[in-house]
């Protein structure tokens, strides 16, 4: 079995020949599986359990649930495994948690502001040594120190050819806009090593609607390439998914290795009633080989007030198909 980001698995060269699978989640493509959970993340462990976490609408805690099927996550009992602090760091607007299993331990990456500065987000890490992350204690490993201090969020991690990398979104005060995407090698699961490299900045019109945003990176390794999906623009119906691509043999810390799709690869689809899709992740279906696209969207276009105050970003999943040239095709529906 190969996980999308390469953790604890061998690399597979091709996914092009996969046929649609018949499971509850593919039969219900286009329908939300979990309501009011934004920035969804589903991690399939090597023992077959699926772990789900996401941003809960009050932004107060980190939720975790598990199931032996993707569809089963909808009814799985959620557990609040960590709560925000009363003040100081990690005390305001808990966003976009991700769970990973690295070197025999569980880690959760998330972003938080402070009560005295709600949008001064930084990236933090929790660690759990238990076999089941719903049990045992979560230890705060603290803030990931980036090359400079500024708003940052949406960290994800992946392994490639024996090296672990962190990819995240961060503001650079010297660059007009809100967030760019960066990559760095990792010394350990809570420490980056060396220089962080910018691999994407908002440049196309569709990345600049409302805000100049590249955020929410997610990694999938297939067909000789490393793909990083990301989200762009404000979190209303203009929110959409872009794609970066690098050869698996390239220097991933060289910005020139990465190419950006000139158009969004997944966006609002009014006919399907999905608005502002994005902040996705990837997982693998129960058959151990079919790739699954996990994302949030709203079911209506118009929002009153600030989109971040609207709780109705729901979790969706659909099969991720592959084109003949080996690239992901997000727009094929079963």
Can you tell me about this structure?
InterPro entries: Alpha-L-arabinofuranosidase, Glyco_hydro_43, Glyco_hydro_beta-prop_sf. GO terms for molecular function: hydrolase activity, hydrolyzing O-glycosyl compounds. The protein is mainly β and 334 residues long. It has one domain: Tachylectin-2, Chain A (5 Propeller). 1% of the residues lie in helices and 46% in strands. It contains one helix and 21 strands. It has one helix at residues 24-27; strands at 38-44, 50-55, 61-67, 79-83, 92-102, 105-114, 117-128, 139-143, 152-160, 163-170, 180-188, 191-200, 214-222, 225-232, 240-247, 259-260, 275-284, 291-298, 314-319, 321-322, 328-329. It has a four-stranded antiparallel beta sheet, with no helix packed on it. A four-stranded antiparallel beta sheet has the order 5-6-7-8, with no helix packed on it. The chain is globular and about 45 Å long. The chain starts with 23 loop residues before the first helix and ends in a 5-residue tail after the last strand. Residues 9-22 have low confidence and may be disordered.
């Amino acid at each position: 079995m190969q996980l999308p980001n390469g953790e604890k698995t061998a690399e597979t060269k091709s996914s092009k020949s996969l046929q649609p699978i018949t499971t509850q989640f593919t039969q219900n493509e286009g329908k939300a599986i979990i309501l009011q959970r934004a920035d969804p993340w589903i991690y399939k462990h090597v023992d077959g359990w699926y772990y789900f976490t996401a941003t809960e609408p009050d932004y107060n805690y980190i939720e975790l649930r598990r199931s032996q099927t993707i569809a089963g996550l909808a009814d799985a009992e959620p557990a609040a495994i960590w709560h925000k602090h009363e003040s100081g760091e990690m005390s305001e607007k808990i966003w976009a948690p991700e769970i990973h299993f690295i070197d025999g331990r569980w880690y959760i990456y998330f972003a938080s502001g402070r009560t005295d500065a709600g949008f001064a987000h930084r990236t933090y890490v929790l660690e759990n040594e238990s076999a089941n992350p719903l049990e045992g204690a979560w230890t705060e490993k603290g803030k990931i120190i980036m090359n400079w201090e500024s708003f940052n969020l949406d960290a994800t991690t992946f392994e490639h050819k024996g090296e672990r990398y962190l990819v995240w979104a961060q503001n650079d005060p010297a660059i007009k806009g809100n967030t760019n995407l960066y990559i760095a090698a990792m010394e350990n699961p809570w420490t980056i090593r060396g220089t962080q490299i910018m691999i994407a900045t908002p440049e196309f019109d569709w990345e600049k609607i409302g805000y100049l945003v590249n955020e929410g990176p997610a990694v999938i390794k297939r067909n000789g390439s490393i793909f990083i999906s990301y989200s762009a623009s404000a979190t209303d119906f203009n929110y959409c998914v872009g794609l970066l691509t690098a050869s698996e043999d390239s220097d991933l810390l060289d910005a020139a290795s990465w190419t950006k799709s000139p158009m969004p690869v997944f966006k609002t689809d009014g006919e399907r009633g999905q608005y502002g899709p994005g902040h996705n992740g990837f997982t693998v279906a129960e058959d151990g080989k079919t790739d699954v696209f996990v994302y949030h969207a709203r079911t209506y276009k118009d929002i009153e007030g600030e989109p971040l105050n609207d709780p109705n970003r729901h979790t969706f999943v659909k099969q991720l198909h592959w084109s003949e040239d080996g690239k992901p095709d997000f727009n094929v529906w079963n």
